[in-house]
Automatic annotation (TrEMBL):
<keyword id="KW-0547">Nucleotide-binding</keyword>
<dbReference type="InterPro" id="IPR027417">
    <property type="entry name" value="P-loop_NTPase"/>
</dbReference>
<keyword id="KW-0479">Metal-binding</keyword>
<protein>
    <submittedName>
        <fullName>Ribosome-binding ATPase YchF</fullName>
    </submittedName>
</protein>
<dbReference type="InterPro" id="IPR023192">
    <property type="entry name" value="TGS-like_dom_sf"/>
</dbReference>
<dbReference type="InterPro" id="IPR013029">
    <property type="entry name" value="YchF_C"/>
</dbReference>
<dbReference type="InterPro" id="IPR012676">
    <property type="entry name" value="TGS-like"/>
</dbReference>
<dbReference type="InterPro" id="IPR006073">
    <property type="entry name" value="GTP-bd"/>
</dbReference>
<dbReference type="InterPro" id="IPR012675">
    <property type="entry name" value="Beta-grasp_dom_sf"/>
</dbReference>
<keyword id="KW-0067">ATP-binding</keyword>
<dbReference type="Pfam" id="PF06071">
    <property type="entry name" value="YchF-GTPase_C"/>
</dbReference>
<feature type="domain" description="YchF C-terminal">
    <location>
        <begin position="275"/>
        <end position="356"/>
    </location>
</feature>
<dbReference type="InterPro" id="IPR004396">
    <property type="entry name" value="ATPase_YchF/OLA1"/>
</dbReference>
Amino acid sequence: MKVGIIGLPQTGKKTLFQVLTGSTVPEQAGGAAKPLPGTAAIIDDRFERLVKLYQPKKEAPARIDLVLLPKMEQDTISRGDIFRDISDVDALCHVVRAFADESIYHSAGSVEPIRDVEMVNAELVMHDQIFVEKRIERLAASVKKIKDERQVKELELMKRLQAHLEGEQPLRLFPITEEEDLLIRSYPLITRKELILVFNVGEDELGDTGLLDRVGERCRAGKMEAMIVSAKVEAEIALLDSEAERRAFLEDLGIAESALQMLTKLCLQALGRVSFFTVGKDEVRQWLVRAGSPAPVAAGVIHSDLQKGFIRAEVMKYDELMAHGSEAELKKAGKLYVQGKDYIVVDGDILNIRFNV
């Protein structure tokens, strides 16, 4: 699961990337900026509690791949570099400046977060529109020479996509069948990707939900998620020595979750992923699987052999395990469930896969 971080210049996306990944972003030594990859461990309170319960030799939280993409300036937009980079990610995190600071310039001359959201969205829609128009031209010319059924279907689909985009609507909102999806899955259509808006505010605005209220209808209409963060505050928190100090700092500011917790939760939600766990004295590990997946598919996330030789899954429910305090007490209560191939894995399940290869 790879999430690309985009934004206009001076939005705080570099600071946020450094906070999320714990890495340092080097200054570009001339030439065009390149995508910068990083990873971040998903922070999940359930995982922390399972580690505390089992005291394993090894702990392995799930991780999310993040890519800091070049800032969206006129030259990167006109060259098209930024769009090639965006096409390689699963979802987009658009960092939007919403903090006031006269010492930091804004490329548009003033801080207007909703305007910036609409401007970037328009650029993304325009990119897809140009691609679709060119594809229509090629398909129309090809169909005139040889009437290939697949190309005829794709041409008809492309014309519908074109009409949708001309209405300034992202392709996330375009209804598409599985057969149609196969026709265009490999194409670099950016607005098909899930989009998360991260409004970077000042410290004094962290508890203010006014901005989220203002963009709420736009988000619902455009199938976007939104959150508020202060990258500056998060950077200060990251410098603290212990987790206890960081939690206390967040509590003092009235922040329920860190930026990483909020962002990864929205990413999992947007991309339709759920977490499940494997536990024991040797290791506690968190895994991610597509929502609605049957147990053998989840087993395959752990190892392909487990999916091939799947027999059954022994399932513990996280809340029930925490309520009883141990596996032994859970089993006494008859709360260890044996499930077959048709069982759909639920967020928070603890699985032990029985298999034979």
